[in-house]
Amino acid sequence: MSNADLVKRDLSVLWHPCTQMKDHEWLPVIPVRRARGVWLEDFEGKRYLDAISSWWVNLFGHSNPRINLALAEQADTLEHVLLAGFTHEAVIELSERLVEITPPGLERCFYADNGSSAVEVALKMSFHAWLNQGRPGKTRFVTLENSYHGETLGALAVGNVELYKQTYSPLLMETISVPSPDCYRREPGESWHDYSVRRFEDMESTLARHADEICAVIIEPLVQCAGSMRMYDPVYLKLLREACDRHGVHLIADEIAVGFGRTGTLFACEQAGISPDFMCLSKGLTGGYLPLSVVLTRNSIYDCFYDDYRKLTAFLHSHSYTGNALGCRAALATLDIFRDDNVIEANKQLAAAMHETSECFREHPHVGEVRQTGMILAIEMVQDRRSRKPYPWEERRGLKVYQHGLENGVLLRPLGNVIYFMPPYVITPDEIRLLADVAHQGIQVATAG
Ligand code: PMP
């Protein structure tokens, strides 16, 4: 079996996600034969360092022996059973542990099978909880500009990345969108904190004006990942929590991308010392093994649905694979690794190594900003460092970095003109240096001429 054979077969039957398939006339898909740790290997033995954790899902390396073992045992015992009317040990234990490790007040777990579905669950639950409390006028959601919450129609509607949303806008519910605290836009000399506080004014006035019709504010805590890894200060979340309480509005924290240690704490909300009313988790939940997601919420919200069947207040939402036993077991093995290996503490050194190697980008004439939150580091490529004039999107400079990366054994997948590192936590400082070197050369190539 060669790369070429597989590519040919692939292109005759597959339609790849988030891809203009015509690009594959000149940009080959890469068939992966196997993967171990941070390394992917193709059918010709060429290796690629997975610097983006395969779309931010992988935490402890590919083919992790501890997760493999847990999965093999689970597969031998129970692979799946419906979660309506039935239950199983893995989902019960996972729920207990999630309640224990997430911010206080999140006491109930509702499962789905991918991030977008978790967002749909949180949106429906928020609306429905208000309805069950006799507040049918609360039907709208507040979102931040540049936010991303997934691709299904409800999740797309509460996101704001134009590239994904614009085409489908006639199909989407209307939302109220508020300027982002994205600190890339702060004034020269202004701190992240001050800019985030200043940006909150728009949120405050929006909530004051529309509270009666708003179900919830949905937000990606600390980092707007798909929105080019734009970052902000935790103070914004603190102010938002207070304002949501004051105005009687739910707070949905979408930690699908930032959860499980990505921002330096187990959950990003911890850095603001807040508990949301709903927390959506997926991606790293299973260590990058299987599609699983969960929405955690408060018992006070759960209680809004709890009544005699004939009152028709139940949350009649389901997915076939809700609470899949293999997914739950992979999640439990992942949580064991966090606990046994003191991962959050160990990651501080990796984050410091990422910071150190990023120095070389800071003075680059075509880098507008290098920003980092925990284990996420982003480099913003621009035409001119001083004016931060962006490159026209049509030039696809990020794609040139991607190609350079592949030629040199590193999988970087820039978001437009933003190159970022979001590696598995088993990466070594040497591998971080390799990654930075290749990214640096890639930026040289992409910005020459
Ligand atoms: N929310 C956020 C913050 C995300 O980053 C993503 C995926 N990139 C999603 C939701 C959607 O998750 P999924 O792709 O599993 O549907």
Q: In terms of topology, how is this protein built?
A:
Blueprint (H helix, E strand, L loop, with lengths): L2 H11 L18 E5 L2 E4 L4 E4 L2 H4 L8 H13 L11 H13 L6 E5 L2 H18 L7 E5 L8 H5 L4 H4 L10 E3 L13 H19 L3 E6 L3 E2 L5 E2 L3 H13 L2 E5 L23 E4 L11 E5 L1 H5 L21 H16 L2 H15 L1 H4 L4 E7 L2 E6 L15 H11 L2 E2 L6 E4 L7 H19 L2
Parallel strand pairs: 3-15, 5-6, 5-7, 7-10, 10-11
Antiparallel strand pairs: 1-2, 2-3, 4-12, 8-9, 11-12, 13-14, 14-16
Helix pairs in contact: 3-11, 4-11, 8-9, 12-15, 14-15
Bound molecules: 4'-deoxy-4'-aminopyridoxal-5'-phosphate.
Poorly predicted regions are none
Average pLDDT metric: 98
CATH architecture of the largest domain: 3-Layer(aba) Sandwich
Beta percentage is 15-25%
CATH class of the largest domain: Alpha Beta
Task: Report the end-to-end length measured between terminal Cα atoms.
Answer: 39 Å
Content-based structural category:
alpha/beta
CATH superfamily of the largest domain: Type I PLP-dependent aspartate aminotransferase-like (Major domain)
In what order do the strands lie side by side in the largest sheet?
4-12-11-10-7-5-6
Shape: globular
Overall number of domains: 2
The main β sheet shows up as: 7 strands, mixed
Bound molecules: 4'-deoxy-4'-aminopyridoxal-5'-phosphate
